[in-house]
Amino acid sequence: MTVSVPPLAIAPSESGRRGNLAGGSLETSLSAREVAQAWESFAAGEDIETGVRPEILASWYRCRDRYEVDRTLDVAPGARGDDVQRLDNGVIFTTLGGLGALAGREVEQDGAVVTVADGDGRVLGAWGDPSARRRAELHNLAPWSSWSEQCTGTNGMGTSLEVSGPVTVTGPEHWCEAFHRWSCAGISIRDVVTGSPVASINISRWNAALSELVPAWLTKAAACVEQEIYRRAIYEADKVISEFNRKCDQVADPFLAMDRGGNVIAANDEAVSLLGLTPESGISPGATEPAKRWTPDISGLPEVVRWAKERAQGPARWSGYACLPVSPGEDATPVTLRPVLDSDHVVGMLCLFGVREGEPYEERAEAAVGPLPRRIVGIRNERLVLLAPSEIRYAEADRNIVWLNTERGRIQAATRGLDNIERSLLSCGFSRVHRRFLVNLRRVAELERGIKGELFLIMDPRSHESVPVSRRQAPELRRMLGI
Protein backbone atom coordinates (compact mmCIF):
# COMPACT_ATOMS: atom_id res chain seq x y z
CA MET A 1 0.00 0.00 0.00
CA THR A 2 1.41 3.39 -0.96
CA VAL A 3 2.06 5.85 1.88
CA SER A 4 0.40 9.21 1.30
CA VAL A 5 2.78 12.06 2.16
CA PRO A 6 0.77 15.11 3.32
CA PRO A 7 1.56 18.67 2.18
CA LEU A 8 4.53 20.24 3.95
CA ALA A 9 4.29 23.57 5.77
CA ILE A 10 7.11 24.84 7.96
CA ALA A 11 5.61 28.15 9.05
CA PRO A 12 2.15 29.01 10.46
CA SER A 13 -0.37 29.35 7.64
CA GLU A 14 -1.24 32.88 8.76
CA SER A 15 2.32 34.11 8.14
CA GLY A 16 1.16 35.10 4.69
CA ARG A 17 4.49 36.28 3.34
CA ARG A 18 8.14 35.41 3.25
CA GLY A 19 10.13 36.93 6.08
CA ASN A 20 7.47 36.59 8.77
CA LEU A 21 9.54 34.08 10.72
CA ALA A 22 7.84 31.60 13.02
CA GLY A 23 9.26 31.67 16.50
CA GLY A 24 11.38 34.80 15.96
CA SER A 25 15.15 35.06 15.57
CA LEU A 26 17.11 32.08 16.78
CA GLU A 27 19.63 34.38 18.41
CA THR A 28 17.15 36.04 20.76
CA SER A 29 15.44 33.00 22.28
CA LEU A 30 16.32 32.18 25.88
CA SER A 31 16.80 28.46 25.19
CA ALA A 32 19.21 29.22 22.35
CA ARG A 33 21.35 31.32 24.70
CA GLU A 34 21.41 28.50 27.25
CA VAL A 35 22.42 25.96 24.60
CA ALA A 36 25.08 28.38 23.32
CA GLN A 37 26.56 28.63 26.83
CA ALA A 38 26.60 24.82 27.09
CA TRP A 39 28.26 24.63 23.67
CA GLU A 40 30.97 27.08 24.77
CA SER A 41 31.75 24.96 27.84
CA PHE A 42 31.70 21.67 25.96
CA ALA A 43 33.78 22.98 23.04
CA ALA A 44 36.35 24.18 25.59
CA GLY A 45 36.79 20.58 26.76
CA GLU A 46 34.39 20.33 29.70
CA ASP A 47 32.11 17.30 30.17
CA ILE A 48 28.46 18.25 30.69
CA GLU A 49 25.35 16.17 31.39
CA THR A 50 22.46 18.63 31.26
CA GLY A 51 21.33 21.76 29.45
CA VAL A 52 21.24 20.15 26.00
CA ARG A 53 18.95 17.52 24.53
CA PRO A 54 20.50 14.03 24.95
CA GLU A 55 20.62 13.23 21.25
CA ILE A 56 22.42 16.53 20.57
CA LEU A 57 24.90 16.06 23.40
CA ALA A 58 25.64 12.52 22.20
CA SER A 59 26.36 14.00 18.77
CA TRP A 60 28.66 16.62 20.29
CA TYR A 61 30.62 13.86 22.00
CA ARG A 62 31.03 12.06 18.68
CA CYS A 63 32.12 15.27 16.94
CA ARG A 64 34.61 16.30 19.62
CA ASP A 65 36.03 12.99 20.85
CA ARG A 66 35.64 10.52 17.97
CA TYR A 67 35.59 12.55 14.76
CA GLU A 68 37.58 15.58 16.02
CA VAL A 69 35.58 17.99 13.83
CA ASP A 70 36.94 21.54 13.78
CA ARG A 71 34.19 23.62 15.40
CA THR A 72 35.40 26.72 13.51
CA LEU A 73 34.61 25.08 10.16
CA ASP A 74 32.38 27.36 8.07
CA VAL A 75 32.24 25.53 4.73
CA ALA A 76 31.38 21.85 4.27
CA PRO A 77 34.12 19.93 2.45
CA GLY A 78 33.56 18.51 -1.00
CA ALA A 79 32.51 14.87 -1.19
CA ARG A 80 34.47 12.20 -2.97
CA GLY A 81 33.21 11.38 -6.42
CA ASP A 82 33.23 7.58 -6.37
CA ASP A 83 29.95 5.71 -6.34
CA VAL A 84 29.81 3.61 -3.18
CA GLN A 85 26.08 2.97 -2.90
CA ARG A 86 25.18 -0.39 -1.43
CA LEU A 87 21.86 -0.99 -3.16
CA ASP A 88 20.36 -0.79 -6.60
CA ASN A 89 19.41 2.76 -5.63
CA GLY A 90 18.24 4.33 -8.88
CA VAL A 91 14.53 3.97 -8.05
CA ILE A 92 15.12 4.93 -4.41
CA PHE A 93 16.80 8.22 -5.27
CA THR A 94 14.25 8.93 -7.99
CA THR A 95 11.49 8.60 -5.36
CA LEU A 96 13.44 10.63 -2.80
CA GLY A 97 14.35 13.30 -5.33
CA GLY A 98 10.70 13.61 -6.30
CA LEU A 99 9.75 14.16 -2.66
CA GLY A 100 12.58 16.68 -2.26
CA ALA A 101 11.46 18.66 -5.31
CA LEU A 102 7.82 18.61 -4.12
CA ALA A 103 8.80 19.78 -0.63
CA GLY A 104 11.08 22.43 -2.12
CA ARG A 105 8.15 24.00 -4.01
CA GLU A 106 5.95 23.93 -0.92
CA VAL A 107 8.47 25.63 1.40
CA GLU A 108 9.83 28.15 -1.11
CA GLN A 109 7.64 30.95 0.29
CA ASP A 110 8.95 30.25 3.80
CA GLY A 111 12.62 30.78 2.96
CA ALA A 112 13.69 27.15 3.35
CA VAL A 113 15.93 24.69 1.54
CA VAL A 114 15.27 20.96 1.07
CA THR A 115 18.28 18.69 0.47
CA VAL A 116 18.68 15.00 -0.29
CA ALA A 117 21.91 13.14 0.57
CA ASP A 118 23.18 9.60 0.13
CA GLY A 119 24.14 7.26 2.96
CA ASP A 120 27.57 8.89 3.31
CA GLY A 121 26.16 12.41 3.72
CA ARG A 122 26.96 13.46 0.15
CA VAL A 123 24.36 16.00 -1.03
CA LEU A 124 22.73 14.94 -4.29
CA GLY A 125 20.11 17.65 -4.78
CA ALA A 126 18.75 20.89 -3.30
CA TRP A 127 15.41 22.68 -3.80
CA GLY A 128 13.56 25.62 -2.27
CA ASP A 129 13.75 29.39 -1.92
CA PRO A 130 16.43 30.75 -4.34
CA SER A 131 17.72 33.35 -1.85
CA ALA A 132 17.94 30.74 0.92
CA ARG A 133 19.76 28.38 -1.44
CA ARG A 134 22.28 31.11 -2.27
CA ARG A 135 22.86 31.70 1.43
CA ALA A 136 23.21 27.94 1.98
CA GLU A 137 25.75 27.71 -0.83
CA LEU A 138 28.02 30.06 1.15
CA HIS A 139 28.45 27.10 3.53
CA ASN A 140 28.58 24.64 0.60
CA LEU A 141 25.14 23.26 1.43
CA ALA A 142 24.81 22.23 -2.19
CA PRO A 143 25.25 19.12 -4.36
CA TRP A 144 28.53 17.20 -4.04
CA SER A 145 29.35 18.53 -0.58
CA SER A 146 29.70 16.26 2.45
CA TRP A 147 27.42 16.81 5.46
CA SER A 148 28.14 13.66 7.45
CA GLU A 149 28.85 14.23 11.15
CA GLN A 150 32.41 13.08 10.58
CA CYS A 151 32.98 15.89 8.06
CA THR A 152 30.70 18.73 9.19
CA GLY A 153 29.62 18.02 12.77
CA THR A 154 26.13 18.00 14.23
CA ASN A 155 23.52 18.84 11.57
CA GLY A 156 20.18 17.48 10.38
CA MET A 157 21.51 15.31 7.58
CA GLY A 158 24.66 14.02 9.25
CA THR A 159 23.14 13.33 12.65
CA SER A 160 20.15 11.56 11.10
CA LEU A 161 22.61 9.08 9.54
CA GLU A 162 23.87 8.22 13.05
CA VAL A 163 20.47 7.54 14.66
CA SER A 164 17.01 6.31 13.72
CA GLY A 165 13.99 8.58 13.39
CA PRO A 166 13.73 12.32 12.67
CA VAL A 167 16.38 14.66 14.08
CA THR A 168 16.03 18.42 14.62
CA VAL A 169 19.10 20.64 15.12
CA THR A 170 18.33 24.24 15.98
CA GLY A 171 20.74 27.17 16.18
CA PRO A 172 23.67 26.57 18.58
CA GLU A 173 22.89 22.86 18.70
CA HIS A 174 25.04 22.67 15.53
CA TRP A 175 28.61 21.67 16.37
CA CYS A 176 30.17 24.20 14.00
CA GLU A 177 29.66 27.80 15.13
CA ALA A 178 29.22 29.09 11.58
CA PHE A 179 25.93 27.17 11.33
CA HIS A 180 24.39 28.54 14.56
CA ARG A 181 21.97 30.77 12.62
CA TRP A 182 20.36 27.78 10.90
CA SER A 183 17.65 25.39 12.00
CA CYS A 184 17.28 22.04 10.27
CA ALA A 185 15.53 18.70 10.51
CA GLY A 186 16.48 15.46 8.79
CA ILE A 187 15.70 11.77 8.70
CA SER A 188 17.65 8.82 7.35
CA ILE A 189 16.26 6.13 5.08
CA ARG A 190 17.67 2.75 6.11
CA ASP A 191 18.26 -0.55 4.37
CA VAL A 192 15.89 -3.08 5.97
CA VAL A 193 18.43 -5.87 5.32
CA THR A 194 21.60 -4.37 6.82
CA GLY A 195 20.15 -1.56 8.96
CA SER A 196 22.66 0.90 7.46
CA PRO A 197 21.55 4.31 6.17
CA VAL A 198 21.28 4.66 2.39
CA ALA A 199 19.95 8.22 2.15
CA SER A 200 18.70 11.25 4.06
CA ILE A 201 16.26 14.09 3.43
CA ASN A 202 16.68 17.38 5.27
CA ILE A 203 14.93 20.77 5.57
CA SER A 204 16.95 23.87 6.57
CA ARG A 205 15.85 27.42 7.41
CA TRP A 206 17.87 30.53 8.11
CA ASN A 207 17.42 32.33 11.45
CA ALA A 208 13.99 30.84 12.17
CA ALA A 209 12.66 27.71 13.81
CA LEU A 210 10.93 24.93 11.92
CA SER A 211 7.36 23.90 12.61
CA GLU A 212 6.71 21.07 15.04
CA LEU A 213 4.93 19.33 12.13
CA VAL A 214 8.15 18.87 10.14
CA PRO A 215 9.38 15.69 11.93
CA ALA A 216 6.04 13.98 11.25
CA TRP A 217 6.27 14.93 7.57
CA LEU A 218 9.83 13.57 7.40
CA THR A 219 8.69 10.29 8.99
CA LYS A 220 5.98 9.92 6.33
CA ALA A 221 8.46 10.73 3.57
CA ALA A 222 10.97 8.17 4.85
CA ALA A 223 8.24 5.50 5.09
CA CYS A 224 7.29 6.21 1.48
CA VAL A 225 10.87 5.61 0.28
CA GLU A 226 11.47 2.64 2.58
CA GLN A 227 8.54 0.87 0.90
CA GLU A 228 10.75 0.64 -2.18
CA ILE A 229 13.65 -0.73 -0.10
CA TYR A 230 11.34 -3.32 1.48
CA ARG A 231 10.04 -4.34 -1.93
CA ARG A 232 13.61 -4.71 -3.12
CA ALA A 233 14.49 -6.85 -0.07
CA ILE A 234 11.63 -9.26 -0.80
CA TYR A 235 12.67 -9.44 -4.46
CA GLU A 236 16.28 -10.19 -3.45
CA ALA A 237 15.16 -12.89 -1.00
CA ASP A 238 13.14 -14.59 -3.73
CA LYS A 239 16.21 -14.60 -5.98
CA VAL A 240 18.39 -16.08 -3.22
CA ILE A 241 15.84 -18.76 -2.26
CA SER A 242 15.40 -19.71 -5.92
CA GLU A 243 19.16 -20.17 -6.32
CA PHE A 244 19.33 -22.08 -3.03
CA ASN A 245 16.56 -24.46 -4.10
CA ARG A 246 18.23 -24.98 -7.47
CA LYS A 247 21.50 -26.04 -5.80
CA CYS A 248 20.06 -27.86 -2.78
CA ASP A 249 19.69 -31.30 -4.41
CA GLN A 250 23.33 -31.18 -5.48
CA VAL A 251 24.66 -30.63 -1.94
CA ALA A 252 24.92 -33.25 0.83
CA ASP A 253 26.77 -31.06 3.35
CA PRO A 254 25.22 -28.38 5.57
CA PHE A 255 24.09 -25.65 3.20
CA LEU A 256 22.34 -22.32 3.77
CA ALA A 257 21.49 -19.07 2.03
CA MET A 258 22.05 -15.60 3.51
CA ASP A 259 21.00 -12.09 2.57
CA ARG A 260 23.43 -9.19 2.07
CA GLY A 261 23.55 -8.59 5.82
CA GLY A 262 24.59 -12.15 6.70
CA ASN A 263 21.14 -13.18 7.97
CA VAL A 264 19.93 -16.70 7.16
CA ILE A 265 17.08 -16.89 4.65
CA ALA A 266 17.00 -20.65 3.98
CA ALA A 267 18.86 -23.78 5.18
CA ASN A 268 18.84 -27.52 4.50
CA ASP A 269 18.22 -30.04 7.29
CA GLU A 270 21.95 -30.60 7.85
CA ALA A 271 22.55 -26.88 8.41
CA VAL A 272 19.49 -26.61 10.69
CA SER A 273 20.96 -29.40 12.85
CA LEU A 274 24.50 -27.96 12.81
CA LEU A 275 23.42 -24.46 13.86
CA GLY A 276 20.88 -25.61 16.45
CA LEU A 277 17.88 -24.09 14.72
CA THR A 278 14.41 -25.24 15.71
CA PRO A 279 11.81 -26.52 13.24
CA GLU A 280 9.61 -23.58 14.27
CA SER A 281 12.18 -21.04 13.05
CA GLY A 282 10.69 -21.00 9.54
CA ILE A 283 14.17 -20.90 8.02
CA SER A 284 14.00 -24.28 6.24
CA PRO A 285 11.37 -23.35 3.62
CA GLY A 286 12.71 -19.79 3.35
CA ALA A 287 12.23 -16.54 5.28
CA THR A 288 11.44 -13.80 2.78
CA GLU A 289 10.32 -11.34 5.48
CA PRO A 290 13.42 -9.47 6.79
CA ALA A 291 12.12 -9.55 10.38
CA LYS A 292 11.90 -13.37 10.34
CA ARG A 293 15.50 -14.02 9.27
CA TRP A 294 18.02 -15.46 11.71
CA THR A 295 21.56 -14.27 12.52
CA PRO A 296 24.07 -17.14 12.99
CA ASP A 297 26.09 -17.08 16.21
CA ILE A 298 29.41 -17.83 14.47
CA SER A 299 32.40 -15.74 15.51
CA GLY A 300 33.98 -13.94 12.55
CA LEU A 301 31.17 -14.67 10.08
CA PRO A 302 30.00 -11.02 9.66
CA GLU A 303 33.55 -9.95 8.71
CA VAL A 304 33.84 -12.83 6.23
CA VAL A 305 30.49 -11.92 4.63
CA ARG A 306 31.61 -8.29 4.21
CA TRP A 307 34.88 -9.50 2.67
CA ALA A 308 33.03 -11.80 0.27
CA LYS A 309 30.68 -9.00 -0.83
CA GLU A 310 33.65 -6.76 -1.66
CA ARG A 311 35.49 -9.49 -3.55
CA ALA A 312 32.42 -10.69 -5.45
CA GLN A 313 31.52 -7.39 -7.13
CA GLY A 314 31.32 -7.59 -10.93
CA PRO A 315 30.30 -10.16 -13.50
CA ALA A 316 33.18 -12.65 -12.96
CA ARG A 317 32.25 -15.86 -11.14
CA TRP A 318 33.84 -15.83 -7.68
CA SER A 319 33.91 -17.95 -4.53
CA GLY A 320 35.95 -17.84 -1.36
CA TYR A 321 36.29 -19.66 1.93
CA ALA A 322 37.27 -19.11 5.56
CA CYS A 323 37.80 -21.43 8.53
CA LEU A 324 35.41 -20.51 11.35
CA PRO A 325 34.53 -21.95 14.82
CA VAL A 326 31.13 -23.33 13.86
CA SER A 327 30.84 -26.06 16.52
CA PRO A 328 31.99 -25.54 20.12
CA GLY A 329 34.98 -27.57 21.25
CA GLU A 330 35.85 -28.59 17.69
CA ASP A 331 38.42 -27.39 15.16
CA ALA A 332 37.46 -24.55 12.86
CA THR A 333 35.28 -25.63 9.94
CA PRO A 334 35.87 -24.52 6.32
CA VAL A 335 32.99 -22.39 5.09
CA THR A 336 32.69 -21.52 1.40
CA LEU A 337 30.71 -18.51 0.21
CA ARG A 338 29.29 -18.17 -3.28
CA PRO A 339 27.58 -14.88 -4.19
CA VAL A 340 24.07 -14.69 -5.62
CA LEU A 341 24.05 -11.92 -8.22
CA ASP A 342 21.33 -9.87 -9.84
CA SER A 343 22.46 -7.53 -12.62
CA ASP A 344 26.04 -7.84 -11.32
CA HIS A 345 24.96 -6.76 -7.80
CA VAL A 346 25.43 -9.09 -4.82
CA VAL A 347 21.97 -9.81 -3.34
CA GLY A 348 22.94 -12.72 -1.08
CA MET A 349 25.34 -15.59 -0.38
CA LEU A 350 25.18 -19.36 -0.58
CA CYS A 351 27.15 -20.90 2.29
CA LEU A 352 28.58 -24.46 2.26
CA PHE A 353 30.09 -25.97 5.40
CA GLY A 354 33.04 -28.35 5.22
CA VAL A 355 34.05 -27.17 1.73
CA ARG A 356 37.16 -25.22 0.67
CA GLU A 357 36.56 -23.50 -2.65
CA GLY A 358 38.02 -20.40 -4.27
CA GLU A 359 39.96 -17.57 -2.65
CA PRO A 360 41.10 -18.08 0.97
CA TYR A 361 40.13 -15.42 3.49
CA GLU A 362 42.98 -13.72 5.26
CA GLU A 363 42.01 -12.07 8.50
CA ARG A 364 42.74 -8.38 8.38
CA ALA A 365 44.99 -6.90 11.01
CA GLU A 366 42.95 -4.75 13.35
CA ALA A 367 43.83 -1.10 13.46
CA ALA A 368 45.67 -0.03 16.57
CA VAL A 369 43.25 0.76 19.36
CA GLY A 370 43.15 4.47 20.03
CA PRO A 371 42.63 6.19 23.37
CA LEU A 372 39.79 4.72 25.40
CA PRO A 373 36.59 6.74 25.36
CA ARG A 374 36.33 9.18 28.21
CA ARG A 375 32.91 7.84 28.92
CA ILE A 376 30.27 5.54 27.48
CA VAL A 377 27.27 7.78 26.89
CA GLY A 378 23.78 6.67 27.92
CA ILE A 379 20.33 8.29 27.94
CA ARG A 380 17.86 8.19 30.84
CA ASN A 381 14.89 10.44 31.56
CA GLU A 382 15.88 12.94 28.85
CA ARG A 383 19.33 13.31 30.44
CA LEU A 384 22.72 12.15 29.23
CA VAL A 385 24.50 9.77 31.60
CA LEU A 386 28.30 9.48 31.41
CA LEU A 387 29.51 6.01 32.40
CA ALA A 388 33.00 4.72 33.05
CA PRO A 389 33.43 1.28 31.42
CA SER A 390 34.05 -0.24 34.87
CA GLU A 391 30.50 0.76 35.91
CA ILE A 392 28.92 -1.44 33.22
CA ARG A 393 28.23 -5.07 34.12
CA TYR A 394 26.91 -6.06 30.71
CA ALA A 395 25.25 -4.70 27.58
CA GLU A 396 22.13 -6.25 26.06
CA ALA A 397 20.90 -5.69 22.51
CA ASP A 398 17.21 -5.26 21.71
CA ARG A 399 17.52 -5.17 17.92
CA ASN A 400 19.51 -1.98 17.26
CA ILE A 401 18.94 -0.48 20.72
CA VAL A 402 21.51 -1.35 23.41
CA TRP A 403 20.74 -1.39 27.14
CA LEU A 404 23.59 -0.95 29.64
CA ASN A 405 23.14 -2.68 32.98
CA THR A 406 25.07 -0.66 35.52
CA GLU A 407 25.37 0.24 39.19
CA ARG A 408 23.12 3.20 38.37
CA GLY A 409 20.41 1.02 36.88
CA ARG A 410 19.43 0.04 33.35
CA ILE A 411 20.38 2.80 30.92
CA GLN A 412 19.90 3.04 27.16
CA ALA A 413 23.16 3.56 25.25
CA ALA A 414 23.30 6.69 23.11
CA THR A 415 25.16 4.68 20.46
CA ARG A 416 23.04 2.18 18.54
CA GLY A 417 24.19 -1.33 17.66
CA LEU A 418 25.92 -3.84 19.95
CA ASP A 419 28.81 -4.10 17.48
CA ASN A 420 29.53 -0.38 17.97
CA ILE A 421 29.44 -0.72 21.76
CA GLU A 422 31.74 -3.74 21.52
CA ARG A 423 34.30 -1.75 19.52
CA SER A 424 34.20 1.06 22.10
CA LEU A 425 34.85 -1.42 24.95
CA LEU A 426 37.34 -3.61 23.08
CA SER A 427 40.24 -2.93 25.47
CA CYS A 428 38.21 -2.69 28.67
CA GLY A 429 37.85 -6.39 29.51
CA PHE A 430 34.52 -6.96 27.75
CA SER A 431 33.68 -10.08 25.76
CA ARG A 432 30.79 -11.05 23.48
CA VAL A 433 29.27 -14.19 25.04
CA HIS A 434 26.07 -14.29 22.98
CA ARG A 435 24.83 -12.49 19.89
CA ARG A 436 22.73 -10.28 22.19
CA PHE A 437 25.07 -9.91 25.19
CA LEU A 438 28.43 -8.25 25.86
CA VAL A 439 29.79 -8.75 29.40
CA ASN A 440 32.43 -7.13 31.58
CA LEU A 441 34.52 -10.18 32.53
CA ARG A 442 35.81 -8.38 35.61
CA ARG A 443 32.24 -8.23 36.94
CA VAL A 444 31.40 -11.96 36.56
CA ALA A 445 30.66 -13.23 40.08
CA GLU A 446 29.44 -16.81 39.55
CA LEU A 447 28.76 -19.39 36.85
CA GLU A 448 25.65 -21.52 36.80
CA ARG A 449 24.57 -24.49 34.72
CA GLY A 450 21.00 -24.92 33.53
CA ILE A 451 19.05 -28.17 33.57
CA LYS A 452 20.03 -28.84 29.94
CA GLY A 453 23.68 -27.95 30.41
CA GLU A 454 23.34 -24.30 29.41
CA LEU A 455 25.84 -21.89 30.94
CA PHE A 456 24.82 -18.65 32.66
CA LEU A 457 26.99 -15.87 34.08
CA ILE A 458 25.81 -14.45 37.41
CA MET A 459 26.71 -10.77 37.29
CA ASP A 460 25.08 -9.69 40.57
CA PRO A 461 24.56 -12.44 43.19
CA ARG A 462 22.28 -10.20 45.24
CA SER A 463 19.63 -10.05 42.51
CA HIS A 464 20.72 -13.26 40.78
CA GLU A 465 21.19 -11.21 37.62
CA SER A 466 22.29 -13.67 34.91
CA VAL A 467 23.48 -13.58 31.29
CA PRO A 468 23.17 -16.60 28.95
CA VAL A 469 26.29 -17.88 27.19
CA SER A 470 25.94 -19.31 23.69
CA ARG A 471 27.27 -22.83 23.34
CA ARG A 472 29.72 -21.65 20.69
CA GLN A 473 31.19 -19.00 22.98
CA ALA A 474 31.42 -21.23 26.07
CA PRO A 475 34.88 -22.81 25.37
CA GLU A 476 36.52 -19.42 24.70
CA LEU A 477 34.81 -17.91 27.75
CA ARG A 478 36.13 -20.71 30.00
CA ARG A 479 39.62 -20.11 28.61
CA MET A 480 39.43 -16.35 29.33
CA LEU A 481 38.13 -16.98 32.85
CA GLY A 482 40.76 -19.67 33.48
CA ILE A 483 38.30 -22.47 34.29
Automatic annotation (TrEMBL):
<feature type="domain" description="HTH LytTR-type">
    <location>
        <begin position="376"/>
        <end position="483"/>
    </location>
</feature>
<dbReference type="GO" id="GO:0000156">
    <property type="term" value="F:phosphorelay response regulator activity"/>
</dbReference>
<dbReference type="InterPro" id="IPR029016">
    <property type="entry name" value="GAF-like_dom_sf"/>
</dbReference>
<dbReference type="InterPro" id="IPR046947">
    <property type="entry name" value="LytR-like"/>
</dbReference>
<dbReference type="Pfam" id="PF04397">
    <property type="entry name" value="LytTR"/>
</dbReference>
<feature type="domain" description="PAS">
    <location>
        <begin position="249"/>
        <end position="281"/>
    </location>
</feature>
<feature type="region of interest" description="Disordered">
    <location>
        <begin position="1"/>
        <end position="24"/>
    </location>
</feature>
<dbReference type="GO" id="GO:0003677">
    <property type="term" value="F:DNA binding"/>
</dbReference>
<protein>
    <submittedName>
        <fullName>LytTR family transcriptional regulator DNA-binding domain-containing protein</fullName>
    </submittedName>
</protein>
<dbReference type="InterPro" id="IPR007492">
    <property type="entry name" value="LytTR_DNA-bd_dom"/>
</dbReference>
<keyword id="KW-0238">DNA-binding</keyword>
<dbReference type="InterPro" id="IPR000014">
    <property type="entry name" value="PAS"/>
</dbReference>
